[in-house]
Amino acid sequence: MQRDNFDSERGTVSEDVRERHLEIADTVLSDEPYGQLIGGEWVESEDGEECAAIDATTGETLATYWRGTAQDVDRAVTAAQEAFNETWGSYNPMQRADALDDIADALEKRKQEIARIDSLEMGKANQHSLFVDATIMISQFRYFAGLARTADEGRRPSSASNKLAYTSREPYGVVGQISAWNFPSMFVAWKMGPALAAGNTIVFKPSPRAVLSTLEVAGVMNDHLPDGTVNVVPGTGPDVGARITNHPEIRKLSMTGSTAAGKSVMEGATSNLKAVSLELGGNNPNIVFPDANLDDAVEGALIGSFFNQGEQCTAGSRLFVHTDVHEEFLERFTEEMERLTVGDPLAPMTDIGPLVDHAHLDRVQNYVDTAVEEGATVAVGGGTPEAPDLAGAPVFEPTVLTDVENDDTVACDEVFGPVVSVIEWTDREEMIELANDTEYGLASAVWTTDLDTAHETADALEAGTVWINTYNDLFDNVPHGGYKQSGLGRELDKEAFESYRQTKTVVLNHGKLPRLG
Protein backbone atom coordinates (compact mmCIF):
# COMPACT_ATOMS: atom_id res chain seq x y z
CA MET A 1 0.00 0.00 0.00
CA GLN A 2 1.49 3.32 -1.09
CA ARG A 3 1.99 6.23 1.35
CA ASP A 4 3.44 9.28 -0.35
CA ASN A 5 5.18 12.42 0.91
CA PHE A 6 5.05 11.95 4.69
CA ASP A 7 8.34 11.24 6.43
CA SER A 8 7.53 9.39 9.66
CA GLU A 9 11.16 9.55 10.79
CA ARG A 10 10.90 13.29 11.50
CA GLY A 11 9.05 12.81 14.77
CA THR A 12 5.71 11.97 16.33
CA VAL A 13 2.90 14.27 17.38
CA SER A 14 1.65 14.17 20.95
CA GLU A 15 -0.70 11.43 22.06
CA ASP A 16 -3.45 14.00 22.65
CA VAL A 17 -3.26 15.20 19.05
CA ARG A 18 -3.06 11.67 17.72
CA GLU A 19 -6.10 10.50 19.71
CA ARG A 20 -8.12 13.55 18.66
CA HIS A 21 -7.45 12.86 15.01
CA LEU A 22 -8.18 9.15 15.29
CA GLU A 23 -11.45 9.82 17.10
CA ILE A 24 -12.67 12.31 14.52
CA ALA A 25 -11.51 10.17 11.59
CA ASP A 26 -13.53 7.27 12.99
CA THR A 27 -16.68 9.42 12.96
CA VAL A 28 -16.37 10.90 9.46
CA LEU A 29 -14.61 8.31 7.31
CA SER A 30 -15.41 4.84 6.05
CA ASP A 31 -13.60 1.78 7.39
CA GLU A 32 -13.89 0.16 3.97
CA PRO A 33 -11.64 1.14 1.05
CA TYR A 34 -13.07 3.96 -1.04
CA GLY A 35 -13.79 2.91 -4.58
CA GLN A 36 -13.97 5.00 -7.70
CA LEU A 37 -17.40 6.38 -8.54
CA ILE A 38 -18.19 5.13 -12.05
CA GLY A 39 -21.68 4.75 -13.47
CA GLY A 40 -23.30 5.28 -10.08
CA GLU A 41 -21.34 2.46 -8.44
CA TRP A 42 -18.29 2.36 -6.19
CA VAL A 43 -15.82 0.13 -8.01
CA GLU A 44 -12.25 -1.03 -7.69
CA SER A 45 -9.60 -0.07 -10.20
CA GLU A 46 -8.98 -2.54 -13.02
CA ASP A 47 -5.19 -2.32 -12.89
CA GLY A 48 -4.43 0.22 -10.18
CA GLU A 49 -3.50 -0.28 -6.57
CA GLU A 50 -5.01 0.46 -3.21
CA CYS A 51 -3.50 3.64 -1.76
CA ALA A 52 -3.47 5.23 1.67
CA ALA A 53 -4.89 8.68 2.32
CA ILE A 54 -2.63 10.24 4.93
CA ASP A 55 -3.39 12.54 7.85
CA ALA A 56 -1.33 15.66 7.12
CA THR A 57 -0.68 16.22 10.82
CA THR A 58 0.02 12.75 12.22
CA GLY A 59 1.16 10.87 9.14
CA GLU A 60 -1.19 8.00 9.95
CA THR A 61 -3.51 6.35 7.45
CA LEU A 62 -6.97 7.90 7.44
CA ALA A 63 -8.51 5.56 4.89
CA THR A 64 -7.62 3.68 1.74
CA TYR A 65 -8.86 4.21 -1.79
CA TRP A 66 -8.42 2.66 -5.21
CA ARG A 67 -6.12 4.64 -7.44
CA GLY A 68 -7.43 4.81 -10.98
CA THR A 69 -5.77 4.25 -14.32
CA ALA A 70 -6.31 5.32 -17.91
CA GLN A 71 -8.57 2.28 -18.37
CA ASP A 72 -10.73 3.49 -15.49
CA VAL A 73 -11.06 6.88 -17.17
CA ASP A 74 -12.32 5.10 -20.27
CA ARG A 75 -14.95 3.31 -18.19
CA ALA A 76 -15.97 6.60 -16.57
CA VAL A 77 -16.29 8.37 -19.92
CA THR A 78 -18.51 5.59 -21.23
CA ALA A 79 -20.73 5.88 -18.16
CA ALA A 80 -20.86 9.67 -18.46
CA GLN A 81 -21.75 9.46 -22.15
CA GLU A 82 -24.57 7.02 -21.41
CA ALA A 83 -25.91 9.32 -18.70
CA PHE A 84 -25.78 12.29 -21.05
CA ASN A 85 -27.54 10.40 -23.85
CA GLU A 86 -30.16 8.64 -21.75
CA THR A 87 -30.93 10.65 -18.60
CA TRP A 88 -29.17 13.81 -17.41
CA GLY A 89 -28.75 15.23 -20.90
CA SER A 90 -32.54 15.16 -21.29
CA TYR A 91 -33.26 16.96 -18.02
CA ASN A 92 -34.74 20.42 -18.47
CA PRO A 93 -33.24 23.41 -16.64
CA MET A 94 -35.77 23.22 -13.80
CA GLN A 95 -35.00 19.56 -13.18
CA ARG A 96 -31.27 20.27 -13.12
CA ALA A 97 -31.81 23.16 -10.74
CA ASP A 98 -33.94 21.06 -8.39
CA ALA A 99 -31.25 18.37 -8.30
CA LEU A 100 -28.54 20.91 -7.45
CA ASP A 101 -30.69 22.38 -4.68
CA ASP A 102 -31.26 18.89 -3.27
CA ILE A 103 -27.49 18.32 -3.31
CA ALA A 104 -26.94 21.60 -1.44
CA ASP A 105 -29.54 20.63 1.18
CA ALA A 106 -27.91 17.24 1.69
CA LEU A 107 -24.41 18.72 1.93
CA GLU A 108 -25.64 21.26 4.48
CA LYS A 109 -26.42 18.36 6.81
CA ARG A 110 -22.88 16.99 6.38
CA LYS A 111 -21.07 20.31 6.30
CA GLN A 112 -19.14 19.78 9.52
CA GLU A 113 -18.05 16.26 8.57
CA ILE A 114 -16.74 17.37 5.19
CA ALA A 115 -14.85 20.27 6.75
CA ARG A 116 -13.20 17.92 9.23
CA ILE A 117 -12.12 15.58 6.45
CA ASP A 118 -10.36 18.45 4.67
CA SER A 119 -8.64 19.45 7.92
CA LEU A 120 -7.49 15.88 8.50
CA GLU A 121 -6.18 15.17 5.03
CA MET A 122 -4.91 18.58 3.98
CA GLY A 123 -4.00 20.17 7.32
CA LYS A 124 -6.02 23.37 7.07
CA ALA A 125 -7.46 24.96 10.20
CA ASN A 126 -10.93 23.57 10.81
CA GLN A 127 -12.45 27.00 11.40
CA HIS A 128 -11.44 27.86 7.83
CA SER A 129 -12.51 24.57 6.26
CA LEU A 130 -15.91 24.89 7.96
CA PHE A 131 -16.76 28.58 7.70
CA VAL A 132 -15.04 29.26 4.37
CA ASP A 133 -14.55 26.14 2.23
CA ALA A 134 -17.67 24.15 3.13
CA THR A 135 -19.84 27.27 3.19
CA ILE A 136 -18.71 28.33 -0.29
CA MET A 137 -19.15 24.77 -1.56
CA ILE A 138 -22.81 24.76 -0.60
CA SER A 139 -23.50 28.29 -1.81
CA GLN A 140 -21.98 27.46 -5.21
CA PHE A 141 -24.44 24.61 -5.78
CA ARG A 142 -27.33 26.91 -4.83
CA TYR A 143 -26.03 29.71 -7.05
CA PHE A 144 -25.73 27.53 -10.13
CA ALA A 145 -29.13 26.01 -9.42
CA GLY A 146 -30.49 29.54 -9.73
CA LEU A 147 -28.60 30.11 -12.98
CA ALA A 148 -29.95 26.88 -14.43
CA ARG A 149 -33.49 28.12 -13.77
CA THR A 150 -33.01 31.57 -15.22
CA ALA A 151 -30.47 31.10 -18.02
CA ASP A 152 -31.25 32.51 -21.44
CA GLU A 153 -31.78 29.55 -23.73
CA GLY A 154 -31.85 31.53 -26.95
CA ARG A 155 -32.48 34.92 -28.58
CA ARG A 156 -33.96 36.21 -31.79
CA PRO A 157 -31.92 38.99 -33.37
CA SER A 158 -33.52 41.26 -35.92
CA SER A 159 -33.20 39.98 -39.45
CA ALA A 160 -34.73 40.19 -42.87
CA SER A 161 -38.51 39.94 -42.95
CA ASN A 162 -38.47 36.52 -44.58
CA LYS A 163 -35.89 34.95 -42.27
CA LEU A 164 -35.79 33.97 -38.65
CA ALA A 165 -32.49 33.56 -36.81
CA TYR A 166 -32.13 32.37 -33.27
CA THR A 167 -29.49 30.82 -31.06
CA SER A 168 -29.48 28.11 -28.48
CA ARG A 169 -26.93 27.30 -25.80
CA GLU A 170 -26.18 23.61 -25.49
CA PRO A 171 -23.97 21.52 -23.18
CA TYR A 172 -20.79 19.95 -24.49
CA GLY A 173 -21.74 16.49 -23.23
CA VAL A 174 -18.99 14.77 -21.25
CA VAL A 175 -16.56 17.19 -19.58
CA GLY A 176 -13.31 16.40 -17.80
CA GLN A 177 -12.33 18.19 -14.61
CA ILE A 178 -9.02 18.08 -12.73
CA SER A 179 -8.75 19.66 -9.31
CA ALA A 180 -6.10 20.75 -6.79
CA TRP A 181 -5.48 19.72 -3.20
CA ASN A 182 -5.59 23.05 -1.35
CA PHE A 183 -9.40 23.52 -1.30
CA PRO A 184 -10.62 19.98 -2.04
CA SER A 185 -14.34 20.08 -1.27
CA MET A 186 -14.81 23.69 -2.36
CA PHE A 187 -13.31 23.01 -5.78
CA VAL A 188 -15.81 20.19 -6.33
CA ALA A 189 -18.60 22.78 -6.27
CA TRP A 190 -16.63 25.36 -8.24
CA LYS A 191 -16.29 22.88 -11.08
CA MET A 192 -19.23 20.51 -10.90
CA GLY A 193 -21.84 23.16 -10.08
CA PRO A 194 -21.68 25.10 -13.36
CA ALA A 195 -21.01 21.98 -15.46
CA LEU A 196 -24.11 20.21 -14.14
CA ALA A 197 -26.26 23.33 -14.29
CA ALA A 198 -25.40 23.61 -17.98
CA GLY A 199 -26.45 20.00 -18.59
CA ASN A 200 -23.10 18.21 -18.89
CA THR A 201 -21.96 14.95 -17.32
CA ILE A 202 -18.58 14.76 -15.59
CA VAL A 203 -15.40 12.74 -15.20
CA PHE A 204 -13.52 14.27 -12.26
CA LYS A 205 -9.98 13.73 -10.97
CA PRO A 206 -9.07 14.99 -7.48
CA SER A 207 -5.47 15.50 -6.43
CA PRO A 208 -3.84 12.40 -4.89
CA ARG A 209 -2.86 14.63 -1.95
CA ALA A 210 -6.50 15.21 -0.94
CA VAL A 211 -8.99 12.62 -2.14
CA LEU A 212 -11.41 11.81 0.65
CA SER A 213 -13.71 14.84 0.85
CA THR A 214 -14.19 14.71 -2.93
CA LEU A 215 -15.32 11.09 -2.70
CA GLU A 216 -17.65 11.87 0.20
CA VAL A 217 -19.19 14.87 -1.59
CA ALA A 218 -19.53 12.87 -4.80
CA GLY A 219 -21.33 10.17 -2.86
CA VAL A 220 -23.88 12.72 -1.66
CA MET A 221 -24.28 14.03 -5.20
CA ASN A 222 -24.71 10.56 -6.61
CA ASP A 223 -27.77 10.05 -4.38
CA HIS A 224 -29.53 12.90 -6.20
CA LEU A 225 -28.35 12.37 -9.78
CA PRO A 226 -28.87 9.71 -12.44
CA ASP A 227 -26.18 7.02 -12.46
CA GLY A 228 -23.10 8.09 -14.39
CA THR A 229 -23.82 11.83 -14.24
CA VAL A 230 -20.84 12.37 -11.93
CA ASN A 231 -17.85 10.02 -12.06
CA VAL A 232 -14.73 10.34 -9.90
CA VAL A 233 -11.43 8.65 -10.74
CA PRO A 234 -8.63 9.37 -8.25
CA GLY A 235 -5.14 8.92 -9.63
CA THR A 236 -1.94 10.52 -10.80
CA GLY A 237 -1.50 13.16 -13.46
CA PRO A 238 0.52 10.97 -15.85
CA ASP A 239 -2.11 8.23 -15.73
CA VAL A 240 -5.58 9.58 -15.00
CA GLY A 241 -4.99 13.27 -15.75
CA ALA A 242 -3.33 12.61 -19.09
CA ARG A 243 -6.11 10.28 -20.21
CA ILE A 244 -8.77 12.83 -19.29
CA THR A 245 -6.99 15.54 -21.26
CA ASN A 246 -6.54 13.46 -24.41
CA HIS A 247 -9.70 11.33 -24.37
CA PRO A 248 -11.49 11.77 -27.71
CA GLU A 249 -15.00 11.72 -26.20
CA ILE A 250 -14.30 14.55 -23.73
CA ARG A 251 -14.99 17.89 -25.42
CA LYS A 252 -14.38 20.33 -22.56
CA LEU A 253 -11.71 20.49 -19.83
CA SER A 254 -11.46 22.47 -16.62
CA MET A 255 -8.38 22.32 -14.43
CA THR A 256 -7.18 24.01 -11.24
CA GLY A 257 -3.52 23.64 -10.32
CA SER A 258 -0.04 24.86 -11.08
CA THR A 259 0.89 26.72 -14.24
CA ALA A 260 3.13 23.82 -15.28
CA ALA A 261 0.22 21.40 -14.94
CA GLY A 262 -2.00 23.80 -16.87
CA LYS A 263 0.43 23.83 -19.78
CA SER A 264 0.42 20.03 -19.81
CA VAL A 265 -3.39 20.01 -19.90
CA MET A 266 -3.43 22.43 -22.81
CA GLU A 267 -1.01 20.25 -24.75
CA GLY A 268 -3.20 17.20 -24.18
CA ALA A 269 -6.32 19.12 -25.17
CA THR A 270 -4.96 19.70 -28.66
CA SER A 271 -5.65 16.03 -29.44
CA ASN A 272 -9.22 16.95 -30.38
CA LEU A 273 -9.20 20.71 -29.79
CA LYS A 274 -11.08 20.57 -26.50
CA ALA A 275 -12.40 23.77 -24.97
CA VAL A 276 -10.22 24.56 -21.96
CA SER A 277 -10.55 26.67 -18.82
CA LEU A 278 -7.68 26.90 -16.35
CA GLU A 279 -7.29 28.44 -12.88
CA LEU A 280 -3.57 28.38 -12.23
CA GLY A 281 -0.83 29.82 -10.07
CA GLY A 282 -0.19 33.31 -8.80
CA ASN A 283 2.50 35.48 -7.24
CA ASN A 284 0.30 38.36 -6.32
CA PRO A 285 1.19 41.97 -5.45
CA ASN A 286 -0.37 43.41 -2.30
CA ILE A 287 0.26 47.16 -2.43
CA VAL A 288 0.20 49.54 0.55
CA PHE A 289 0.08 53.27 -0.24
CA PRO A 290 1.27 55.87 2.28
CA ASP A 291 -2.30 57.09 2.96
CA ALA A 292 -3.64 53.59 3.68
CA ASN A 293 -5.52 52.76 6.86
CA LEU A 294 -2.70 50.71 8.36
CA ASP A 295 -4.95 48.75 10.72
CA ASP A 296 -6.93 47.47 7.75
CA ALA A 297 -3.86 46.99 5.57
CA VAL A 298 -2.12 44.92 8.24
CA GLU A 299 -5.16 42.71 8.72
CA GLY A 300 -5.53 42.32 4.97
CA ALA A 301 -1.86 41.38 4.65
CA LEU A 302 -2.29 38.70 7.32
CA ILE A 303 -5.22 37.22 5.41
CA GLY A 304 -3.44 37.54 2.09
CA SER A 305 -0.22 35.97 3.33
CA PHE A 306 -1.23 33.30 5.82
CA PHE A 307 -4.80 32.15 5.20
CA ASN A 308 -4.81 28.43 4.43
CA GLN A 309 -1.12 28.29 5.45
CA GLY A 310 -0.36 30.37 2.37
CA GLU A 311 -1.38 27.38 0.23
CA GLN A 312 -3.56 29.52 -1.99
CA CYS A 313 -3.03 30.74 -5.54
CA THR A 314 -4.33 34.17 -4.54
CA ALA A 315 -1.79 34.65 -1.74
CA GLY A 316 -0.45 38.20 -1.46
CA SER A 317 3.09 36.89 -1.45
CA ARG A 318 4.72 40.10 -2.72
CA LEU A 319 3.92 42.86 -0.23
CA PHE A 320 4.79 46.27 -1.69
CA VAL A 321 4.94 48.87 1.14
CA HIS A 322 5.61 52.57 0.55
CA THR A 323 8.77 53.86 2.18
CA ASP A 324 6.87 56.48 4.21
CA VAL A 325 4.97 53.80 6.15
CA HIS A 326 7.34 50.87 5.68
CA GLU A 327 8.81 50.87 9.19
CA GLU A 328 5.50 51.41 10.97
CA PHE A 329 3.66 48.88 8.82
CA LEU A 330 6.30 46.22 9.33
CA GLU A 331 6.29 46.77 13.08
CA ARG A 332 2.52 46.45 13.28
CA PHE A 333 2.45 43.52 10.90
CA THR A 334 5.00 41.48 12.84
CA GLU A 335 3.29 42.32 16.13
CA GLU A 336 -0.06 41.11 14.81
CA MET A 337 1.54 37.91 13.57
CA GLU A 338 2.20 36.99 17.20
CA ARG A 339 -1.54 36.47 17.80
CA LEU A 340 -1.73 33.82 15.06
CA THR A 341 -1.96 30.34 16.51
CA VAL A 342 0.03 27.64 14.75
CA GLY A 343 -1.23 24.27 15.85
CA ASP A 344 -3.42 21.22 15.44
CA PRO A 345 -5.88 21.98 12.62
CA LEU A 346 -8.68 20.34 14.60
CA ALA A 347 -8.16 22.58 17.63
CA PRO A 348 -10.81 25.33 17.67
CA MET A 349 -8.46 28.33 17.92
CA THR A 350 -5.87 27.26 15.35
CA ASP A 351 -5.20 29.79 12.58
CA ILE A 352 -2.41 27.96 10.77
CA GLY A 353 -2.13 24.18 10.53
CA PRO A 354 0.45 21.92 8.93
CA LEU A 355 1.34 22.05 5.26
CA VAL A 356 -0.05 19.24 3.15
CA ASP A 357 3.02 16.98 3.53
CA HIS A 358 6.78 16.89 4.08
CA ALA A 359 7.61 17.12 0.40
CA HIS A 360 5.84 20.47 0.32
CA LEU A 361 7.44 21.53 3.60
CA ASP A 362 10.87 20.95 2.08
CA ARG A 363 9.87 22.95 -0.98
CA VAL A 364 8.82 25.96 1.11
CA GLN A 365 11.94 25.75 3.28
CA ASN A 366 14.12 25.67 0.18
CA TYR A 367 12.56 28.90 -1.09
CA VAL A 368 13.33 30.65 2.20
CA ASP A 369 16.89 29.32 2.29
CA THR A 370 17.43 30.42 -1.30
CA ALA A 371 16.06 33.87 -0.53
CA VAL A 372 18.60 34.29 2.29
CA GLU A 373 21.39 33.17 -0.02
CA GLU A 374 20.28 35.81 -2.53
CA GLY A 375 20.37 38.60 0.07
CA ALA A 376 16.99 38.57 1.81
CA THR A 377 16.61 38.91 5.57
CA VAL A 378 14.31 36.71 7.66
CA ALA A 379 12.43 39.23 9.80
CA VAL A 380 10.08 36.66 11.34
CA GLY A 381 9.90 32.87 11.19
CA GLY A 382 11.90 31.08 8.54
CA GLY A 383 11.50 27.44 9.51
CA THR A 384 9.70 24.80 11.52
CA PRO A 385 8.47 26.15 14.89
CA GLU A 386 9.10 24.53 18.21
CA ALA A 387 5.76 22.86 18.85
CA PRO A 388 6.12 19.69 20.95
CA ASP A 389 2.52 18.64 20.29
CA LEU A 390 3.22 18.71 16.53
CA ALA A 391 6.66 17.15 16.46
CA GLY A 392 7.11 15.51 13.09
CA ALA A 393 4.16 17.30 11.47
CA PRO A 394 5.00 19.36 8.34
CA VAL A 395 4.49 22.71 10.04
CA PHE A 396 6.10 25.94 8.80
CA GLU A 397 6.17 29.22 10.68
CA PRO A 398 4.51 32.32 9.27
CA THR A 399 7.52 33.99 7.68
CA VAL A 400 8.35 37.55 6.67
CA LEU A 401 11.28 38.24 4.35
CA THR A 402 12.69 41.75 3.93
CA ASP A 403 15.41 43.15 1.65
CA VAL A 404 13.83 41.22 -1.21
CA GLU A 405 14.36 42.27 -4.81
CA ASN A 406 11.56 41.68 -7.30
CA ASP A 407 13.82 39.46 -9.43
CA ASP A 408 14.82 37.20 -6.52
CA THR A 409 13.67 33.60 -6.81
CA VAL A 410 11.22 33.93 -3.93
CA ALA A 411 9.58 36.91 -5.66
CA CYS A 412 9.42 35.24 -9.07
CA ASP A 413 8.13 31.77 -8.19
CA GLU A 414 4.95 30.71 -6.45
CA VAL A 415 6.08 29.60 -2.97
CA PHE A 416 2.64 28.30 -1.93
CA GLY A 417 3.34 28.52 1.78
CA PRO A 418 3.11 31.01 4.67
CA VAL A 419 5.91 33.22 3.33
CA VAL A 420 5.60 36.88 2.35
CA SER A 421 8.30 39.00 0.71
CA VAL A 422 8.23 42.69 1.66
CA ILE A 423 9.40 45.06 -1.07
CA GLU A 424 9.83 48.72 -0.18
CA TRP A 425 8.84 51.27 -2.84
CA THR A 426 8.94 55.02 -3.44
CA ASP A 427 8.07 55.77 -7.06
CA ARG A 428 4.53 54.79 -8.06
CA GLU A 429 5.18 54.09 -11.72
CA GLU A 430 8.23 51.99 -10.92
CA MET A 431 6.23 50.04 -8.32
CA ILE A 432 3.45 49.29 -10.82
CA GLU A 433 6.06 48.10 -13.29
CA LEU A 434 7.52 45.76 -10.67
CA ALA A 435 4.07 44.54 -9.58
CA ASN A 436 3.31 43.58 -13.18
CA ASP A 437 6.77 42.13 -13.81
CA THR A 438 5.70 38.52 -13.33
CA GLU A 439 4.47 35.68 -15.51
CA TYR A 440 1.39 35.49 -13.28
CA GLY A 441 -1.70 37.66 -13.14
CA LEU A 442 -4.27 36.06 -10.86
CA ALA A 443 -4.96 38.57 -8.09
CA SER A 444 -3.75 41.78 -6.48
CA ALA A 445 -4.72 44.27 -3.80
CA VAL A 446 -4.49 48.01 -3.21
CA TRP A 447 -4.66 49.76 0.17
CA THR A 448 -5.42 53.48 -0.03
CA THR A 449 -7.99 56.03 1.14
CA ASP A 450 -7.80 57.96 -2.13
CA LEU A 451 -10.43 56.94 -4.67
CA ASP A 452 -8.47 58.17 -7.68
CA THR A 453 -5.39 56.25 -6.57
CA ALA A 454 -7.49 53.12 -6.10
CA HIS A 455 -9.05 53.26 -9.57
CA GLU A 456 -5.89 54.29 -11.39
CA THR A 457 -3.86 51.52 -9.77
CA ALA A 458 -6.58 48.94 -10.42
CA ASP A 459 -6.58 49.95 -14.09
CA ALA A 460 -2.79 49.60 -14.28
CA LEU A 461 -2.46 46.19 -12.62
CA GLU A 462 -2.33 43.14 -14.87
CA ALA A 463 -4.46 40.79 -12.80
CA GLY A 464 -7.82 39.08 -13.07
CA THR A 465 -8.89 40.44 -9.68
CA VAL A 466 -7.96 43.67 -7.91
CA TRP A 467 -9.13 43.98 -4.32
CA ILE A 468 -9.28 47.49 -2.89
CA ASN A 469 -9.03 47.76 0.89
CA THR A 470 -9.87 44.09 1.28
CA TYR A 471 -8.34 40.71 0.45
CA ASN A 472 -9.57 37.30 -0.68
CA ASP A 473 -13.15 38.47 -1.10
CA LEU A 474 -14.81 35.95 -3.43
CA PHE A 475 -18.51 36.11 -4.25
CA ASP A 476 -20.82 33.71 -6.08
CA ASN A 477 -21.78 36.24 -8.74
CA VAL A 478 -18.32 37.80 -9.27
CA PRO A 479 -15.91 36.14 -11.73
CA HIS A 480 -12.58 34.79 -10.54
CA GLY A 481 -9.67 33.95 -12.83
CA GLY A 482 -6.32 35.08 -14.11
CA TYR A 483 -4.39 37.02 -16.69
CA LYS A 484 -1.21 35.79 -18.39
CA GLN A 485 0.00 32.40 -17.11
CA SER A 486 -2.51 32.39 -14.26
CA GLY A 487 -5.11 30.82 -16.46
CA LEU A 488 -7.94 31.00 -18.96
CA GLY A 489 -11.62 31.55 -18.30
CA ARG A 490 -13.39 32.32 -15.05
CA GLU A 491 -14.80 30.46 -12.06
CA LEU A 492 -17.63 31.19 -9.59
CA ASP A 493 -20.17 33.15 -11.63
CA LYS A 494 -22.21 33.19 -14.84
CA GLU A 495 -19.03 33.22 -16.95
CA ALA A 496 -18.18 29.79 -15.52
CA PHE A 497 -21.68 28.53 -16.34
CA GLU A 498 -21.48 29.84 -19.91
CA SER A 499 -18.08 28.21 -20.41
CA TYR A 500 -19.83 24.82 -20.16
CA ARG A 501 -22.26 25.69 -22.98
CA GLN A 502 -21.67 26.10 -26.69
CA THR A 503 -23.66 28.29 -29.06
CA LYS A 504 -25.73 26.96 -31.93
CA THR A 505 -27.18 29.36 -34.50
CA VAL A 506 -30.30 28.38 -36.43
CA VAL A 507 -31.39 30.37 -39.48
CA LEU A 508 -34.83 29.62 -40.94
CA ASN A 509 -35.86 30.96 -44.34
CA HIS A 510 -39.59 31.22 -44.96
CA GLY A 511 -39.41 33.14 -48.22
CA LYS A 512 -38.16 32.59 -51.73
CA LEU A 513 -34.41 32.12 -52.19
CA PRO A 514 -32.62 34.41 -54.64
CA ARG A 515 -31.40 32.79 -57.85
CA LEU A 516 -27.69 32.08 -58.16
CA GLY A 517 -26.58 33.62 -61.44
Description:
With 517 residues, the protein is of the alpha/beta class. The chain has two domains: 36-280 and 490-501, Aldehyde Dehydrogenase, Chain A, domain 1 (3-Layer(aba) Sandwich); 285-468, Aldehyde Dehydrogenase, Chain A, domain 2 (3-Layer(aba) Sandwich), CATH 3.40.309. It has 16 helices and 19 strands. It has helices at 15-28, 70-86, 93-109, 111-122, 126-150, 184-197, 212-222, 237-246, 259-269, 294-306, 326-337, 358-373, 409-412, 428-436, 451-460, 494-499; strands spanning 36-38, 41-43, 50-54, 61-66, 163-171, 174-178, 201-205, 230-232, 252-256, 275-279, 285-288, 318-322, 377-380, 399-402, 419-425, 443-447, 465-468, 487-488, 501-509. Strands 13-14-15-12-11-16-17 form a seven-stranded mixed β-sheet, sandwiched between helices. A six-stranded mixed β-sheet has the order 8-7-6-9-10-18, sandwiched between helices. Helix 2 packs parallel to helix 8 (237-246). 53% of the residues are buried.
